[in-house]
Amino acid sequence: MRLRRCTVLYLEPREEAAFDLASLLAGGNGLRRTRRWLALAPHLEMEVEVDADERELLGLLGPGEWTERDGFDAGWQPAIGRLLSEGLLIGDDEGSLTHAERDGAVRAAHWWEPALLMHRFSRWQGLDSVAAMEANGMTTAKDMREKLGAPPPEVGERVPASRRLPLPRAVEDEFDALLARRTTCRNFDTGRPLSLALLARLMQRVFAARAAVAIQDDAVFLKKNAPSGGGLHATEAYLLARDVEGLAPGLYHYHAVDHALEPLPVPDAPLDALSQRMLAGQRWFAAAPAQVMLAPRYARSFWKYRNHPKAYRALILDAGHLSQLLYTCATQMGLAAFVTSAINEADIEQAFGMDPLVEGPLAVCGFGWRADTMSTTEFDPTGEVWGR
Prior knowledge:
about 20% strand, alpha+beta, 6-stranded antiparallel beta sheet, 2 domains, 3-stranded antiparallel beta sheet, NADH Oxidase
């Protein structure tokens, strides 16, 4: 049997502190500190703790060259066996087939390795962020100020006020008024469905292709209303339709060229429960009748930006462009909207059938009608939406 190390691997020496009553009673600081080494490999779902022998073994093997297992003496065999079972070592036998396939996907994807590591290990699953904030007494700005102290200043200042050069303020017009009404909605009207016509118009304005230009039969580039890194438009729109007249509740993929919805398998969980889980417990956003997952297809971007340190950053910018365009279009149409990155990515991937090495959500947007009364606080200091 032959062995190699997995393609991407980082080792982290992690220190963790826990309360220790015995230490406190003995005159210490009341903390017990433990240190351990963790292996982070993005083809795996979880980090793996490794000991000194295993760390040394991982350093002896490379990702691109096979080594005979029999070449290691008996003392190394327990470490080899465990690292094979965890997927940090890849063998050329059937027992390593699943890990080898996932590792091969990493090898073929052209990710810049630090970005891939951040992407994989910053994903949430099953987290209720609202419950966590409530448990920690961090639900309001006042709570955060009391718990965390004062934040950094609200603006950066590089010179004294006397040296600043005032700019003339323009007379505001209708577009300025439109921008002023853009306020994140946390109070959707759950009794008022969204019409299919309004859904279609917003999806067209934000996500549809205005033109498709073929350089060759297998190289097509789209023109859309939002900019995109390299003009590649790698971000797909996946729709969770809760309450849209004329559209069955469920999950859909939006086809940007055909301006059409592709129905996806019905989820096992009730749609409202799935929505709240995807949104990490943010029940005010889960009430929106239409919710859109912004999910890049990484290969589309990395086709051009191979192993590029800026490629993932460009995809994050793309999600920002699309979410702001959605806000603006929704506001112009009299609708309310939101965007959030506090999401359970792994739950979204499972529901929509995404492979996180190939495609995955960066943010979720939603839109619908705003309720007549405010039950959850919204930030509207000038009263553009709720009045003064």
